[in-house]
Amino acid sequence: MVADTDSGGRYVFLDYLRAAAAWLVVWDHLATIMPGWAGVVFAPAQWVRNNITGPLGIIQDFGWFGVALFFLISGFIISDRARVETAYEFVVRRVLRIYPMLAVAVLLAAAFVATKSDVTPRNVLLNLTLANYVVIPQVVLLGVAWTLVIEMIFYALTAATQFARDSPHRIAINLVFAALVIWKRGIFGASFSLFAVSVGYLPILVMGQTVYWWLGRKRLSAFWGLAYLAAACGVFLLGVRAIHPELLPASNSYLISVVYALLAFVILMHAQLPARRVVRFLSDTSYSMYLLHGIVGALILKALLHRLPTSIAILAAAATSLAASYLTYRLVERPSQRLGRYLTHARKPAPVAVAAG
Predict the structure, then answer these.
(1) b/e string for 14-25 if b means 16 or more Cβ within 10 A?
(2) Distance of CA 244 to the CA centre of its chain
(3) How many domains does the chain have?
(4) What tens digit of pLDDT does each residue of 236-266 get?
(5) Quick one: pLDDT band at residue 5, thresholds 50, 70, 90?
(6) Which domain covers residue 49, as residue numbers?
(7) Which of 58, 75, 79, 103 has a CA-to-CA distance to 87 between 20 and 30 Å?
(8) 6 is a domain residue
(9) Quick check: 73 and 18 in contact, CB under 8 A?
(10) How many C-beta neighbours within 10 Å does residue 287 have?
């Protein structure tokens, strides 16, 4: 069976992928980047680099691989949700999915880890809305939030094309849009150039969208499925060549990790994976974990790294980040998701009773 779901219609394989994606990013940041800032080398991370990621050509110690997984997951699941939701339902639920937890993370970052000179009312407001990613000068208070801009662009495109919500060929609209923005990136000013940087990542979400319509819903033939995947790779390479040429060589390639992520996605999609409570827990807390580990984990590492063995300090940082993520998941994410469902269900007309004749 392809893409098994549990009794509630939840895609089980996405729980595994979402959990893995979040913790691969955590590994990159807590086990390699942040210790490196303090002049510390974590031996297991160095072993993984020498024996796994290096030989396979996976860059950034699995960090970019995890981000690519997140993008593929979003392309797949957003296509699924958009197929059954109205434009109003889609927008309300996505806004309440992203922004409440983002607001918490931005405010925590501003309070505890951001450069104090950057923390002004204007910059906080721009970061709360993600507008800082298209404003010059660009001030980033929450480092990982750059991926959310890409998500929001994809959501906006999806909402704008809800007139074709049951057509797999809305994929073509997304690819044409991305190609045009990348092509014209330099003619509308600096803010549009920054916008084009984010749009350059859209083809990865389109790959997930293509997998959904081709292998998930069986609405695309093999010809169209492969054609759209090839086109998405082409547009992605166009963006990398135009915007990030340093990420083209095989020794520093974005695309190699994306291909590995796509292969892992398709393999797990076809695997018979059991629904496990621990996997669902890690999946449910993945968004909060993604946003908070660079705040909570950084504070714990800074306090412990030179006082305890490196492995203990990293484990403490990861465990504390997970505890904070679970707390915010219960207090922020779940209530905001319930609010989204309430607001959208409230607008649906009550069923009309038909008298028996």
Answers:
(1) bbbbbbbbbbbb
(2) 19
(3) 1
(4) 999 999 999 999 999 999 999 999 999 999 9
(5) low
(6) 12-345
(7) 103
(8) no
(9) yes
(10) 23
Question: Residue type at 223?
Answer: F
Please check whether residue 5 lies inside any domain of the structure.
Answer: no
Contacts of 184 (CB under 8 A, 6+ apart): 192, 196
Confidence of residue 10 (pLDDT cuts 50, 70, 90): confident
Torsion angle defined by CA atoms of residues 149, 63, 18 and 80, in that order, rounded to the nearest 10 degrees: 40
3-state secondary structure 58-83: CCHHHHHHHHHHHHHHHHHHHHHHHH
Residue with tokens 């750059």: 146
Question: Is residue 102 assigned to a domain?
Answer: yes
Across the chain, mean pLDDT equals 93
* Token duo for residue 165: 């919500």
pLDDT digits (tens, 9 = 90+) for 330-348: 999 999 999 999 999 855 5
Tokens of 75: 């392309």
Distance CA 92, CA 343 (A): 8
With respect to residue 59, please indicate whether it lies within any of the assigned structural domains: yes
What type of residue sits at position 244?
H
**Size (the chain), residues:** 357
Of the candidates 262, 200, 203, the residue with the CA atom closest to the CA atom of residue 17? 262
Cα gap 97→119, rounded to integer Å? 25
